[in-house]
Amino acid sequence: SLKNGQATITAEVNGQRVAATYTLTFQNGLDIGLAPGSLIKIPSDNDPNTFSDTAVYYFASNGRRYVFPNDKVYFTWYPSFDNVRVISVDEMTKIPIGGNVTYRPGSKPVKFQTDDKVYAVYKGGELQWLKTEDVARGIYGDSWASKVDDINEAFYVNYRFGTPIGGASDFMAKTIYDKYSTIEIDKGIGQ
Description:
The structure is a single chain. 17% of the residues lie in helices and 27% in strands. The protein is an alpha/beta fold.
């Protein structure tokens, strides 16, 4: 990342670790007082025809920002925009993009707009196909169908496919939701 401070690196050449370890000190980098887990965005340009100023990012401990692709994904992680901090465009450009945020594991069933299969979301954007309506009902309740969010195909690459779910007891949504309580944990950052 571009954060101020020190980093220790060890080089490897042709699969062999180089004997020396080097410590680098970064100066004049990112020093805007962001704590890991901060929610950030740039100021509004007051132009209703532009959308770059509406994007919200999660600032992670690895010094990268992760983009919420839309408000539906955002609201599976946070109840409001109250804690979003506005930073300057210059400050934002110093923070590299790490990728997109995916739906919070266990939060709700999802599907792609051109695919009839409904999926449960697991760690790291893994989608697990709910094989039957009874399975979906057993996990998400009788009103499961009204909870399904459509994912735009543009975000297909942010997800991967896991083992299909054949029984409601194979996916404990509340337990999974509680376990993956932060984007850092969901993405395995710092682990």
